[in-house]
Amino acid sequence: MTERLSQGEQFDPGRVPDELIDAVLDGSADIEHSRTLFKQLSQSPDAAREVASTQRAIEALRSPVRTPDLSGRVLGELARRHGFTTPAMRRQVWMRRVAAAAALVVVVGGAFAVQRFVPEAATLLPQATPVSDVVAAVPEPTTQIAGFKARITCGLDDLPTLSTLARTCTGAQQACDEVVVACDADSRASDGDEPAFTMVVLQRTAPRRPVAQPVAMGQGMTPTTEQFLALPHGKADLAWAHAKSMRPTTGQDTYAQDTYAMWGPASGASRVEPMMLVSPTATFDWIGLSGELAQPTNARGGATPYR
Amino acid sequence: MTKGEELRLIELAQAGDHDAASALIRAHQKSLFAYLLRLSGNPELSEDVVQDAFVRVLTNLHRFDPRFRFSTWLFTIAKRLYVNACQKMKPVYDTDVVGGRQGNGVEPGLPTLLRERTNNARDAIGRALQQLSSEQREIVVLFHQQEWPITRIAEFMDMPEGTVKSHLHRGRRKMRKYFELHESADWANEFAGVVA
User: Fold this and answer.
1) Smallest Cα distance from B64 to chain A, Å
2) Contact A98/B at CB under 8 A
3) Residue ranges matching CATH 1.10.10.10 in chain B
4) Hey, which end of chain B has fewer CB within 10 Å, N or C?
5) Element (H, E) at B97
6) Tens digits of per-residue pLDDT, A41-88?
7) Could you write out the three-class secondary structure of A185-236?
8) Does pLDDT of A34 surpass 70?
9) d(Cα B65, Cα B73) in Å, to the nearest integer?
10) What residue spans in chain B does CATH classification 1.10.1740.10 cover?
11) Contact (CB<8Å) B105/A269
């Protein structure tokens, strides 16, 4: 929300501040300010006409443009320039592939030989526990169990959409208490726009389990599974969630790291992806639904009973 | 297309796979062309820049840093080519041509008058965009047409987010005024023609 608008600010009837209109058109207004705008607009026909006209202009701007298929021309030009890469670069790519294959053969052969002839040497140090195992291994109190927990495994390149989560949850024929998304940590996670979260938990009520303890985020509220499920399937536009990373160290210890993820559609994409990590002090709330997402294409996993 | 699929296509294209290169082009040419068309108002120039941008990108795929978005890289290169092209020849924003290139997004069977009005609205937006400064126009197009978030636009244009918002708000207001003016003028002309 724009800094110039304060929470619960009252406006004179018929006066519609530009900041309010801008915030709503930018999609940065919260629900309360959106309601305020619509209320003010109902008392100011001129401002309502202005907003409607702006929306028509935006719609016109978004109207489809007939685009010629330039792939043939581009590929023709590339062929004329003797391919995508220089011969030296191609040789380099080819040599890297050969080197990788050779290294693989050496590693596999070496491991086989060690296991066959020196089996005691093949016992490695304690292995880092996969994130999903760490999550599953955390003790769960048995006295407060109700409903189902949906667990979805995914990779950073294979993230479930919000509608996938909702569908998985309702697939258990019962609303979930929690939706857990366990993603593998990735070395790329700390850079660029790849978020470093390894687990996201959406809860129905206050935290119940050690692994699912979101900290209240500023003045925002933790999204519950019920709220999450209330989102129209396939129309979820933006939602935020608390993420708690459980990272195994080389020993058996783990450490937890709180991060916060905002999920929203990537530009031009038809699925919800983690968009950004935000500061723990940031305040987020449910944000208006405006986009329409296509059906999810990469769902994996399913609902499992909560034991 | 997911980022993983895109990276796979980039790897294949880098190794000389024409199908992968073609898939990459098809995945991005529409948004890139629309962006350039709205910036320049010139479809021929836009086509040339899109083609040149893809040729450059595909011949330099080994320089692509997978931590960043492919589309941002592509748009950055295309924008530089567009600026260079503008320096060579000063393009005139030809809204009639832009209007002629618009796709027909109207359902069949809609009354002719309404269809005409929709087309006129598209022409009006072309004329309205013409009134904006180049920065305002680019930011309005990136935000509303390409649906880029403010943070991404700020990075792309190397500007503080506050400046981006300021350009966006001013540009949008200016666009609305001219759009309203042309829209109502088109509608009046059209109505007069029908009555006559």
Assistant:
1) 13
2) no
3) 111-195
4) C
5) helix B95-101
6) 877 888 888 888 888 888 888 888 888 888 888 888 888 876 555 566
7) CCHHHHCCCCCCCCEEEEECCCCCCCCCCCCCCCCCCCCCHHHHHHCCCCCC
8) yes
9) 9
10) 3-88
11) no
Query: Could you tell me which residues come within 8 angstroms of residue B54 by beta carbon, excluding any fewer than 6 positions away?
Result: A70, A74, B25, B29, B74
State whether B15 and A271 contact (CB < 8 Å): no
- Contacts of residue B80, defined as CB under 8 A and 6 or more positions apart, other chains included, come to none
Q: What's the half-sphere exposure (Cβ side, CA atoms, 13 Å) at A122?
A: 11
Token pair for residue A35?
């309601």
- Residue range B111-195 forms a domain whose CATH class is mainly alpha
Residues of B in contact with A22 (CB under 8 A): 165, 169, 172
Two structure tokens written together for A113:
């030989």
Q: Which two tokens stand for residue B64?
A: 């692509």
- Chain B residues 13-32 with a CB less than 8 Å from chain A: 13-16, 18, 21-22, 25-26, 29-31
Sort strands A148-154 and A176-183 into parallel, antiparallel or unpaired: parallel
| Residue whose C-alpha is closest to residue B166's, from B157, A53, A37 | B157
Strand ranges (E), chain A: 148-154, 176-183, 199-203, 239-248, 254-265, 272-277, 302-305
1.10.260.40, 3.20.20.120, 1.10.1740.10, 3.30.300.330: CATH of B3-88: 1.10.1740.10
Q: What is the SS3 string spanning A73-101?
A: HHHHHHHHCCCCCCHHHHHHHHHHHHHHH
Chain B residues whose beta carbon lies within 8 Å of the beta carbon of residue A54? 172-173, 175-176
* Structure tokens given for A248: 């195994």
What is the Cα–Cα distance from A245 to A106, expressed in whole angstroms?
35
| Nearest residue, CB atoms, B147 vs list A77, A194, A268 | A268
- Identify which of A290, A188, A154, A178 has the alpha carbon closest to the alpha carbon of residue A242: A178
Indicate the residue of A26, A64, A77 with minimum beta-carbon distance to B103.
A64
- pLDDT tens digits for A147-166? 444 455 444 455 555 545 55
Contact A18 B29 (CB under 8 A): no
